[in-house]
């Protein structure tokens, strides 16, 4: 049994069969062969080895002709390794005696070889491990061919193991089959983590290298509550975690009873509970859990899940689907927030060394005004189907906001000239995600109808922590006193000017923060569907004066560790059975 410590980004526990998702889209799982298929599968292995050998030899010849034999030596080494008699015998034995598929046999054997190289000291040994991985990929490419399976073609319940998953790859996971995932890279607050929460599947990221330690088909445990991954668990550990899975199910059943109850505090203060979505289909899970509307519709996933940019019709169809599903309830549509770790399907700067500080979000939209106008036109046209609000993300200064509003005005004029119906009676808002937006809110209040605090980016920019970097993950926390002060400044300024303000970041979807946020004056939460019942439960268990007293005590603390300890202790005091 082996334990890996990573970063918990989506809670829950998952136990199941692992599949490894490689960088080239390979899905390798343990598959057994019927006895009568062994001969044909051995022949298929022979063909794959011969094709790979021919490919390597051609590469060796080309490099030798252009650069000389010294540079071609790497391919000679690959060829020698591929044609090694001992490797061939081992692969044949796995197929003939154990009835493993050739794909699984290749992956299992070569990963064991790579693990040996990685265990030895020195850069040369690491290079040899990379050579082994290269041979594995080459053989798998020939073995799988057109039968290569991606994450969208799963047919059974699995746990995904990968070096990394992009936000779009994560968004394409089918939660009916994918019960959890683990990645070697990544950090808290990344958009991959956000999507994992939306899918309501346990996820752990930033474990560091481990894929050579496991083969597809093995049983593992993903502990999304504590950021643990357990490889080859023993029976005692399996029994303990199965009991924990049962506890999660019992709590979920208890929370289900809150679905139709209001999010009112014990002293009668109503707390508005909205849901966050990426796709129209997520509206139903939000409503099923008691959401009063959608407080954040992340429209950029229209760009991330297709090979071509969405047309105005594509946008309009998606927006109308959301509005119709809400049946008169409100929806806040955020304009595209691309860039950083959400790379769109059009050219980005090649020299983007700090993508989170570069051309992203509204900056990117204003750089590609034609694309921005297409989205805004579709949003305006969707107003004929029901009530919507439009929100601009990552606004850092007044000029940026005014330019975005100008593009919106131009879109309105274009639609009027073309005689296309839309409603001008629409609220315009902005995200509060950078310290400059908080500092300048007394000016922004004159420009917008509402605000929404995006804590994922606010934490990142206020604490100078890359939220996708596992090496500084411990510094990325909403418990830092400076973050609480920024949130209080934003809420107080909005209240002074009678402007609605909500929060839609991951922070407000974590029940340990609910009491302090209520105490700071927050009355509108927008969270992933799975978090709605938990946050509602906390709201219905406290009074506002109680939360205000607690928030005042927390605001006097000096460190993130002290704040988090106080938050946990208070939540356990209020709800002893809460799983934290």
UniProtKB/TrEMBL annotation:
Keywords: Cytoplasm, Kinase, Magnesium, Metal-binding, Phosphotransferase system, Sugar transport, Transferase, Transport. Mg(2+) binds at residues 433, 457. InterPro entries: PEP-util_enz_mobile_dom, PEP-utilizing_PTS_enzyme, PEP_util_C, PEP_util_CS, Phosphohistidine_dom_sf, PTS_EI, PTS_EI-like, PTS_EIN. It catalyses: L-histidyl-[protein] + phosphoenolpyruvate = N(pros)-phospho-L-histidyl-[protein] + pyruvate. GO terms for cellular component: cytoplasm. One of its GO terms (molecular function) is metal ion binding. Phosphoenolpyruvate binds at residues 298, 334, 456-457, 467. Residues 5-128 form the Phosphotransferase system enzyme I N-terminal domain. Residues 157-227 form the PEP-utilising enzyme mobile domain. Coiled coil: none annotated. Its cofactor is Mg(2+). SUPFAM superfamilies: Enzyme I of the PEP:sugar phosphotransferase system HPr-binding (sub)domain, Phosphoenolpyruvate/pyruvate domain, Phosphohistidine domain. It is an enzyme of class 2 (transferase). GO terms for biological process: phosphoenolpyruvate-dependent sugar phosphotransferase system. Signal peptide: none annotated. Its EC number is 2.7.3.9. The active site is at 191 (tele-phosphohistidine intermediate), 504 (proton donor). Its main location: cytoplasm. It is found in: Cytoplasm. PANTHER family: PHOSPHOENOLPYRUVATE-PROTEIN PHOSPHOTRANSFERASE. General (non sugar-specific) component of the phosphoenolpyruvate-dependent sugar phosphotransferase system (sugar PTS). This major carbohydrate active-transport system catalyzes the phosphorylation of incoming sugar substrates concomitantly with their translocation across the cell membrane. Enzyme I transfers the phosphoryl group from phosphoenolpyruvate (PEP) to the phosphoryl carrier protein (HPr). Belongs to the PEP-utilizing enzyme family. This is Phosphoenolpyruvate-protein phosphotransferase. The lineage of its organism: Bacteria, Pseudomonadati, Planctomycetota, Planctomycetia, Pirellulales. The gene is ptsP.
């Amino acid at each position: 049994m082996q334990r890996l410590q990573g970063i918990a980004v989506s809670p829950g526990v998952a136990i199941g069969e692992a599949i490894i998702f490689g960088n080239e889209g390979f899905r390798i799982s343990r598959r057994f062969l019927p006895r009568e298929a062994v001969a044909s599968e051995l022949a298929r292995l022979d063909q794959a080895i011969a094709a790979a050998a021919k490919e390597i030899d051609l590469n060796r010849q080309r490099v030798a002709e252009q650069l000389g034999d010294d540079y071609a030596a790497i391919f000679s080494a690959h060829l020698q390794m591929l044609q090694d008699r001992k490797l061939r015998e081992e692969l044949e034995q796995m197929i003939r005696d154990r009835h493993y598929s050739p794909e699984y046999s290749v992956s299992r054997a070569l990963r064991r070889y790579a693990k040996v190289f990685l265990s030895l000291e020195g850069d040369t040994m690491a290079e040899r491990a990379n050579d082994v991985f290269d041979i594995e990929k080459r053989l798998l490419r020939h073995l799988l061919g057109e039968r290569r399976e991606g994450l969208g073609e799963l047919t059974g319940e699995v746990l995904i193991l990968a070096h990394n998953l992009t936000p779009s790859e994560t968004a394409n996971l089918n939660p009916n089959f994918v019960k959890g995932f683990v990645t070697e890279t990544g950090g808290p607050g990344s958009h991959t983590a956000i999507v994992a929460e939306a899918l309501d599947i346990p996820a752990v990221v930033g474990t560091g290298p481990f894929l050579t330690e496991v083969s597809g088909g093995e049983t593992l445990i993903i502990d999304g509550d504590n950021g643990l991954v357990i490889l080859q668990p023993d029976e005692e550990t399996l029994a303990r975690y199965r009991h924990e899975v049962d506890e999660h199910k019992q709590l979920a059943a208890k929370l289900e009873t809150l679905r139709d109850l209001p999010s009112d505090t014990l002293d009668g203060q109503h707390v508005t509970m909205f849901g966050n979505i990426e796709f129209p289909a997520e509206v139903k899970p939000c409503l099923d859990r008691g959401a009063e509307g959608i407080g954040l519709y992340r429209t950029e996933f229209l760009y991330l899940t297709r090979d071509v940019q969405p047309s105005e019709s594509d946008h309009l169809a998606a927006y109308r689907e959301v509005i119709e599903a809400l049946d008169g309830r409100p929806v806040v549509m955020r304009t595209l927030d691309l860039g950083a770790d959400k790379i769109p399907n059009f050219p980005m700067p090649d020299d983007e060394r700090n993508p989170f500080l570069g051309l992203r979000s509204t900056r990117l939209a204003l750089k590609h005004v034609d694309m921005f106008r297409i989205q805004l036109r579709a949003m305006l046209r969707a107003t004929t189907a029901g009530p919507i609000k439009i929100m601009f993300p990552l606004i850092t200064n007044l000029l940026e906001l005014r330019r975005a509003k100008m593009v919106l005005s131009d879109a309105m004029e274009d639609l009027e000239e073309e005689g296309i119906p839309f409603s001008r009676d629409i609220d315009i808002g902005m995200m509060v995600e950078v310290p400059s937006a908080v500092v300048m809110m007394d000016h922004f209040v004159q420009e917008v109808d509402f605000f929404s605090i995006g804590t994922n980016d606010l934490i990142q920019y206020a604490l100078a922590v890359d939220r996708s970097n596992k090496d500084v993950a411990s510094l990325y926390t909403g418990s830092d006193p400076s973050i609480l002060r920024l949130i209080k400044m934003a809420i107080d300024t909005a209240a002074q000017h009678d402007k609605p303000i909500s929060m839609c970041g991951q922070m407000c979807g974590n029940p340990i923060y609910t009491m302090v946020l209520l105490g700071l004056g927050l009355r509108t939460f927008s969270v992933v569907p799975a978090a709605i019942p938990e946050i509602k439960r906390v709201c219905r268990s406290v009074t506002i004066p109680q939360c205000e007293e607690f928030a005042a005590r927390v605001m006097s603390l000096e460190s993130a560790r002290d704040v988090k300890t106080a938050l946990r202790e208070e939540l356990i005091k209020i709800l002893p059975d809460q799983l934290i």
